[in-house]
Design brief:
This protein has 192 residues and is mainly α. Helices cover 74% and strands 0% of the residues.
């Protein structure tokens, strides 16, 4: 899973960034401990994480059915990541108007294709619970932000700086905005 995830992100970075930035981005990603460990132990979220670049590339190349099938497969693979990916795709569609209808089509189609699995979740909902610290008080949100990595405040500052510094990177900015619920719910996993 680890080599395939790196390959998927290399394709994405190569498509959207200059070669030197693509190389540095992949190098930094390959050194991130949680990403590496998640891929090595084969977490379902890591499988969806490896699908995400292919979903995005298919959408931007107007291969909507391929993007829809990959997103539907992501819904069958993991509970939370596909929702965040869908949100990121919709933000990307709003940001880049030429992809708006494609984004809506892909997300709605994937949701329709995943109805059988969603119904199964509903039937067996008693065993499911959300991760992270319970509640939405200020202290629990701060605890979530610091949950996995002690240097999260530094990452947040760098992420905000990079968000405003990148000029032509709507694809990465929409991913950051679409995954903001993960920052509040899971803390350090946002930076995986």
């Amino acid at each position: 899973l680890y080599p395939s995830a790196l390959f998927a992100y290399w394709l994405l970075f190569r498509t959207w960034l200059r070669p030197s930035h693509a190389y540095l981005s992949l190098l930094i990603l390959s050194m991130e401990f949680m990403f590496t460990m998640g891929c090595l132990i084969g977490l379902p979220a890591s499988l969806v994480n490896a699908m995400w670049p292919f979903i995005l590339l298919a959408l931007t190349k107007k291969k909507n059915y391929a993007a829809m099938l990959l997103l539907a497969a992501a819904f069958y693979t993991h509970t939370g990541m596909p929702i965040l990916i869908s949100l990121a795709l919709l933000v990307f569609g709003v940001w880049k108007r030429q992809f708006f209808l494609s984004s809506v089509f892909v997300v709605m189609g994937a949701c329709i294709l995943s109805i059988p699995w969603t119904l199964r979740y509903y039937v067996f909902a008693d065993w499911m619970h959300s991760g992270g610290a319970p509640g939405y008080s200020v202290s629990s949100i701060v605890a979530r932000l610091l949950w996995l990595q002690i240097i999260n405040p530094l990452f947040i500052i760098l992420a905000v700086w990079g968000f405003f510094r990148l000029k032509e990177a709507a694809v990465f900015k929409s991913q950051a905005l679409g995954f903001l619920p993960m920052l509040i719910q899971y803390g350090g996993r946002f930076f995986m």
